[in-house]
Amino acid sequence: MRIQGIDNIVIIGSPSMKEFAISLSIINTLKSHNSQIKVTWIGYEEQKVLAEYVNGLDQFLVKEEVEDEILTQNQAVIFLSEEKDFSKKCRDLKIEIRIGAKSGWRSNRRFTDAVAIDDLLTLEECYIALLTPLGITEKSNNEPSLTAPVGTFRGIIKKDLKNIVFYPYRLDTHRVWPSVRYFELIDQLPKYENNYIIAGNEMEGKALEMTAPELFRVPSVKNSTDLEDLEETLALIAKSDVLVTYNNDIAHLAHAMGAKVICISSSAESFYINKEMCSIITPDASCIKCVGEKPCECLRKLGIEEVMEELK
Fold first, then answer.
1. What would the pLDDT profile of 14-47 be if each residue is shown by its tens digit?
2. Spelled out in words, what is the top-level CATH class assigned to the domain 151-311?
3. Helix-, strand-, coil-residue percentages of the chain, each rounded to 5
4. Which CATH number fits the domain 2-134, given the four candidates 3.40.430.10, 3.20.20.140, 3.40.50.2000, 3.30.428.10?
């Protein structure tokens, strides 16, 4: 198997946080076939904060930190996104194995192995396909790719009842909707059988309190919209029993930790949804990108009955 003859490999990742989370399983898969291989990940600044929690990762570098000497120490490089400058550089540096997705002929000739992915149904399948030139044809195990940063959590989680975390759809502070849908859902769930934790940032919390102040008066509903950073958010999720979210980034990071997740998404995003994760997909395929203050019509069409059924 080709992977067993490689000592050092570099993975050039995607800027998308959800794609970063989905692709982390590659590391465990590589190490299961060659436990001695050293894996270097080239990513982005917002991903670097999670580097110390990535299981099996030996080195994380931000793109701007990468020098030619670092690349030449590796016998193989895998491109998870289209990086024209890096692919040219790796070709010019004569890195022995250069793997990427097949696209235009100019890009293909920078790779030693251009893999066809057009017929694959999910992003994770595409990532595993990129390992086939190394002799790997499937993901090796379902071990968590991320260690939960539980030490960063400042709050207290009561364990008397099941803890359900709801996380906002958008990260932008001015986007409240469709987080208000969580209140529709909570309003129909048993008030004293579960603890309901509304997570997010401070501005979102203030807006939600104005939208449905009566729900925050229920003892089983807790306002946790004061999370300081991504690490604390993941720590809260790890300490809870289940996450319900419209946010694909958070959903996939939580799934990478091994957390139980119910991810609600539009059909246009189905390619990016990890099939091992519990997901509720809107049936409407005519999803368009939401612009400015316009609410997401696709998610508005989704009833809350499916979410309630999954929570049971």
1. 999 999 999 999 999 999 999 999 999 999 999 9
2. alpha beta
3. 40, 20, 45
4. 3.40.50.2000
